[in-house]
Amino acid sequence: MVIGAGQMGGGIAQVAAQAGYDVIVNDLTTGLVEKGLSVIAKNLDRNVKKGKMKEEEAQAVLRRLKPSVFHDDAFDCQLIIEAATEKMDIKGRIFSELDRIAPANAILASNTNCCLDGQDSC
C-alpha cells in the first residue's frame, strides 16, 4: 500500500506496479486517488507512445493498482509506504493507525523530508 496519491506517492505506486506488485493506492478522498491514478495512466501512455513499453504492459500495470480511501485496507499488506503531507503530527497519526491495522510482520516505511526535531515541516 502507498498512502498518498500525489506526485511522490503516485510515482512510488507506479514503480512498484511496474515491478509486478499489486499496489493499493490510498488517499483521503476518492477524488484524490482518482487524480493520482489518472497521472499514472498518463505517464504510462507517454511511455507507450515513446516506445518504452507496450500497451499490454501499461494495461497490466494499471490492473495492479487498486484505489483505497481506508487505512483498514492495509490489513494484509506486507509493505506500506507513507507518502502523505509533510506534517509530523499527521504522519504520526497515520503510523499509529497502521500499527493497529497492518500485520505484525509488515514493514511500515515513510517517504519524508520532515525534520525530526519537533517542527511541523522543514
Mean pLDDT: 92
| Rg over CA atoms | 15 Å
What portion of the residues fall into strands of 2 or more residues? Answer: 5-15%
Order of helices and strands: EHEHHEEHE
Total DSSP E strands: 5
Write down the CATH class. Answer: Alpha Beta
Physical arrangement of strands within the biggest beta sheet:
3-2-1-4-5
Structural class: alpha/beta
The total domain count is 1
Q: What is the overall silhouette?
A: globular
Q: Name the CATH superfamily assignment.
A: NAD(P)-binding Rossmann-like Domain
**Helix tally?**
4
Which architecture would the CATH scheme give at its second level?
3-Layer(aba) Sandwich
Structure commentary:
This protein has about 120 residues and is α/β, with parallel strands linked by helices. It has one domain: Rossmann fold. Helices cover about 45% and strands about 15% of the residues. The protein is built from four helices and five strands, in the order βαβααββαβ. It has a five-stranded parallel β-sheet with strand order 3-2-1-4-5, sandwiched between helices. Strand 4, helix 4 and strand 5 form a beta-alpha-beta unit. Helix 1 crosses helix 2 and helix 2 packs antiparallel against helix 3. The longest helix has 20 residues. It is globular and about 45 Å long. The relative contact order is 0.18.
